[in-house]
Design goal:
The chain is an alpha/beta fold. 31% of the residues lie in helices and 28% in strands. The two termini are 30 Å apart.
């Protein structure tokens, strides 16, 4: 398990993480969502032991990470930049990491390398961005760590490269219960790969939840009510719908559009006594869910994007 306990990280006067509490179970595909500067990359660098927290704890399987070789052996961090390895060939990269990770598998490395047909003897600075990302992912998977951390892993990759990299990750997650933590501002990527996600904003965790439960508990409702005894549309106000957790409420002529945080059966049962002429319950995308939740909390919904 990964645990952040009241974690604080500062850079001079700037507070990047402000008392963050987070738990990530083993075998989880976990997504860290948030805008640039939200604290996603800071968490990954703390987990990999690059940064030391100013407060709180960063624990991997109960051990503090910073300056702890045993804990670091369990983690491989794939940065969003690969410039530091530009003069390395793929073979030199393999040997470099093999010296640090005792469980490194040449067999896994070679199997994955052959699948994507990367050359062993060419320098990484001659590779395309997609090829560089493949090289680092291959190396990370060959290290056979318990935890794989990826910072904006698919940023700038073309669709074909995305599919290849995702397949390598998914295969490893299924084969050996690899715990994968992916930071991204892209909801689509998180939705496709992760089963749990946390949303960060201004150095704080807004929420951390199972994605399926998020989707199953928030709905968009379109409803039309019968007219009153005078033949006029009934003018309902949000406050009249007591007992429902309403995130968004608007009306366009006779149609009410309501975002409700309740399960589908509860919603149907609630509206049944009002004998609606139309009651349509529509599932929301992950993007829509986070946007409405952010708005309720008073944050700007433009802080997250569905596309890069």
């Amino acid at each position: 398990m990964i645990e952040l306990k009241n974690t604080v990280k500062k850079f001079d006067s700037y507070t990047a993480l402000d008392g963050v509490n987070l738990e990530i179970e083993k075998g989880t595909a976990f997504g860290l969502l948030g805008s640039n500067g939200a604290g996603k990359s800071t968490i990954l660098r703390l987990l990999s032991g690059i940064y030391k927290p100013e407060g709180g704890e960063i624990l991997i399987d109960g051990e503090n990470v910073y300056d702890n070789v045993n804990a670091k052996q369990k983690v491989f961090f794939i940065n969003d930049e690969t410039v530091q390895f530009g003069n390395f060939t793929l073979d030199k990269l393999r040997k470099f990491y093999k010296g640090y990770y005792m469980n490194f598998s040449d067999e896994i490395f070679e199997t994955l390398r052959k699948k994507v047909n990367l050359p062993l003897d060419k320098k990484l600075n001659t590779f395309s961005k997609g090829m560089k990302r493949q090289a680092i992912v291959i190396t990370g998977l060959a290290c056979q760590t318990d935890y794989l951390l990826l910072d904006e892993a698919f940023d700038g990759l073309d669709p074909t490269m995305r599919i290849i990299v995702k397949k390598m990750l998914v295969d490893a997650m299924l084969d050996r219960q690899l715990t994968t933590i992916i930071s991204s501002h892209n909801l689509k990527e998180i939705n496709e790969l992760c089963d749990t996600a946390a949303l960060l904003h201004q150095g704080k965790i807004i929420f951390s939840r199972d994605i399926d439960s998020i989707k199953g508990n928030i709905h968009k409702v379109q409803v039309v009510f019968p007219k009153d005894e005078h033949g006029n549309p009934v003018d309902y106000k949000k406050e009249e719908f007591q007992g429902l957790e309403i995130l968004h409420f608007e009306r366009s002529q006779s149609i009410y559009y309501i975002i409700i945080k309740n399960d589908e059966e509860t919603i149907k049962a609630y509206f049944a006594p009002k004998n609606p002429l139309l009651l349509e319950i529509i599932p929301l995308t992950l993007e829509e869910i986070f946007i409405y939740e952010l708005e309720v909390l008073g944050y700007d919904s433009r802080d997250i994007n569905s596309e890069e």
